Amino acid sequence: MNIEAPKAVAGAAPQAPQVVRKSRVREGMPFPLGATWDGLGVNFALFSAHAAKVELCLFDGEGTRELERIELPEYTDEVWHGYLPDARAGTTYDYRVHGPYEPAAGHRFNHNKLLLDPYAKQIVGQVKWDPALFGYTVGAPDKDLSFDARDSAACMPKCRVIDPAFTWARARAPRTPWERTIIYETHLRGFTMRHPAVPLERRGTFAGMMQKEVTDYIRHLGVTAVELLPIHAFVDDSNLVAKEMLNYWGYNTIGFFAPQPRYFATPTVNEVKEMVAHLHDAGIEVILDVVYNHTAEGNELGPTLSFRGIDNASYYRLAPDRRYYINDTGTGNTVNLSHQRVLQMVADSLRYWASEMQVDGFRFDLATILAREPAGFDESSGFLDACRQDPVLSQVKLIAEPWDLGPGGYQVGRFSPGWAEWNDRYRDTVRAYWKGDAGKLGDLAARLTASADLFNKRGRKPWASVNFITAHDGFTLNDLVSYNDKHNEANGEGNRDGRSENLSWNHGVEGATDDKDIRALRCRQMRNFLATLLFAQGTPMILAGDEFARTQRGNNNAYAQDSEISWFDWEGIGEDGRALTEFIRRLIHIRKTQPMLRRGRFLTGADNEELGVKDATWLAPSGKEMTVEQWNDGNARCLGVVLDGRAQPTGIRRRGSDQTLLLVLNAHYDMVRFKLPQVVGGNRWSCLVDTNQPQQTTPGAFAFGADYEVTGRSLLLFEMSTADGSPPTG
In 3D, which of 419, 443, 421 has the Cα closest to residue 433? Predict the structure, then answer.
């Protein structure tokens, strides 16, 4: 089937009439792509390798009435372009793209469908679900092989030309070194929707996130970077809208340059820049969770909103039968980063956010897809090569979610030097250990030392392992210790959605309880998890709200819960939550002041004969070094590690001068006597943290060789010192 601009379709609504062209138009330039106001007019440039004609549609300020339809006059290097000297910033527009409707060949052009500019810097309005959004006739016997002539303009959001001018004043990026980075993952909307200090009209917006009380809270917590769930423009899935729900998380992108419209309190993209400036002024970096692996257009039965109608065969990875899409994402389509222009779009988007919006880094959803070429995951893929050589992108923080649903999708530890990666091995090991699972000591030791078995290669550093216990996807920390099973009934999917195996433990009662003993144990376990996270080598990532025991009532897949299930209940924080917040502030302070907890080199446990130092020594409760038999003892659940501050801190052959630390972990249900070891340079240990005594802030002193009664399910951190309190010597 090859259809170009049919005159009419039986039973279809009439097409919008061709309007009179009034605006002056010139040839313009094919670069830059998108709509660019230069102070005199606007240049429009749109890539499409297979289109026959491109029409620029101008709308009134509200985006409700089409004013003009102008054919872009020039086609250069597969870019359609034109310049409107009478256009200004604020101009509202979309496109109609003509070409063959031939699904079997991968082409799905339909000029009746209004299309968003992939390079739009601002999008106004939301998708209004209607059969007119689909390029085919919904319900037709031949499904997507049919052709729908209804006009979709009334259902589509519109693009708006922006004025990029902004004065950054004194705000400067913090540029926090990786080894000092502590990430705080949160949702921009949910974080402030119930914040009492944020005015109602600013709640859930970029403006709300820049509120002084909000930035002060984050700064005082001690974290160094906020990682925001997707803020690129995204679409609410039709099935969610039908259930009167929304896509809360936002992993359904339709515009890689435009911020999500519902997150604005004011009608200008400068609100995003102001938010970044305020966070930077508070010393907080901004990392964006970005979704370049798929778009909101879904599979062959999805709507025609942008890329599909502009050049389907270029923007998406298609199956051998080009009517269908490769679906490595599980969402219906996969963006084709093997195409030069599509790769350019992603790189341009990243540079725009890093340069114009001045964000400090990116976390890439399902990043394996971005590095997958037709032959599979490729460390020398075009995307990874583009990031590595780019003078802007190579200098920001790049974090991969190193897995997807495609072949060879699990790639933890295999990304290029310069990248950090989410480490789910850390998450699962630490969860299983504190739950009391057998045989976890060896794996735990590897995870506590930045998973050197995965990352210690090619000059990569410990910070490459992004350690986390919880994230947006799954239980909160409170729910991890309060529920054995997921409780996703509110999602309307019969509790079938979400992960069933969570390595969680309710400690005796499912959900909330008034039992004091169970609550005390849960609180201690939360302290154990947080201390394990912040005292491990690597980059810690904290899920926002975990610091005060936020609950989602057992929902481990709150992707559609734009509701009180997901919103932060600031006024409902109880005594336990406030105490936990103070505890985590202390943990973060200790991490920042103890260099051995954030070493820039991997700890190997090997003897350095030249310096006479072993950087990490693993100990049994006897205070002696672990034996092979003890490592292999499936019933053992307690171990310690001495982190020797004399170990060389860099590649220079010199002895370090940092404090020596002793970390002890006991996942056994009962008390364990641990003999405090003797270490060169001191004669006693000062207890900095005991998760069984969270209120204790004054270090207790214990002589070498003393037995310390380690409470069941608890963690301790000691600092070595001398009897008179002077710094130890080597």
Answer: 443
Rounded Cα–Cα distance for residues 227 and 605 (Å)? 33
Residues whose CB is less than 8 angstroms from the CB of residue 310 and which lie 6 or more positions away in sequence, other chains included? 46, 47, 48, 51, 95, 97, 115, 118
Cβ neighbours around 699 below 10 Å, total:
14
**What is the C-alpha to C-alpha distance for residues 284 and 277, in angstroms, rounded to an integer?**
10
Residue 484 and residue 507: Cα distance in Å, rounded? 9
Tell me the helix, strand and coil percentages in the chain, rounded to 5: 25, 20, 55
Contacts of 628 (CB under 8 A, 6+ apart): none
Kindly state the tokens that stand for 612: 């006479």
pLDDT band at 724 (very low <50, low <70, confident <90, very high): low
In sequence order, the 6+-apart residues with CB closer than 8 A to the CB of 29 are: 43, 45, 81, 83
Nearest residue to 286 (alpha-carbon basis) of 296, 275, 295:
275
pLDDT tens digit string along 279-311? 999 999 999 999 999 999 999 999 999 999 999
In the residue annotation, 401 being an active-site residue is answered as yes
Q: Out of 237, 271, 401, 443, pick the active-site residue.
A: 401
pLDDT tens across 103-161, in order?
999 999 999 999 999 999 999 999 999 999 999 999 999 999 999 999 999 999 999 99
Burial of residue 77, with CB atoms counted within 10 A of its CB: 0-12 exposed, 13-18 middle, 19 or more buried: exposed
Distance between CA atoms of 711 and 668, rounded to whole angstroms? Answer: 9
- What is the torsional sign of CA 266, 269, 270, 272? positive
C-alpha radius of gyration, the chain, whole number: 28
pLDDT digits (tens, 9 = 90+) for 436-474: 999 999 999 999 999 999 999 999 999 999 999 999 999
Q: Which amino acid is at 54?
A: V
Cis ω for the linkage preceding 649 (within 30 of 0):
no
> Do residues 613 and 643 make contact, with C-beta atoms less than 8 angstroms apart?
no
Whether residue 675 contacts residue 622, with contact meaning beta carbons closer than 8 Å, is answered with: yes
Residue 723: the pLDDT is: 58
Whether the predicted model's global pTM rises above the 0.90 cut: yes
625 neighbors 689 (Cβ within 8 angstroms): no
**Contact criterion met (CB below 8 Å) for 97 and 152:** no
Q: Which two tokens stand for residue 601?
A: 């080199």
Mean of the per-residue pLDDT values of the chain = 94
Alpha carbons 683 and 702: distance in angstroms, whole number? 9
Quick one: pLDDT at residue 725?
55
Of residues 144, 151, 328, 365, which has the active-site annotation?
365
What does the alpha-carbon distance between residue 514 and residue 375 come to, in Å, rounded to a whole number? 56
The single-letter code of the amino acid at 646 is R
Tens digits of per-residue pLDDT, 645-691? 998 888 777 888 899 999 999 999 999 999 999 998 888 999 999 99
Decide if 365 is catalytic.
Answer: yes
d(C-alpha 596, C-alpha 613), whole Å: 14
- Residue 241, judged by CB atoms within 10 A of its CB (0-12, 13-18, 19+), counts as middle
96/301 Cα distance (integer angstroms) = 20
Task: Determine the Cα–Cα distance for residues 609 and 488; give it in Å rounded to an integer.
Answer: 56
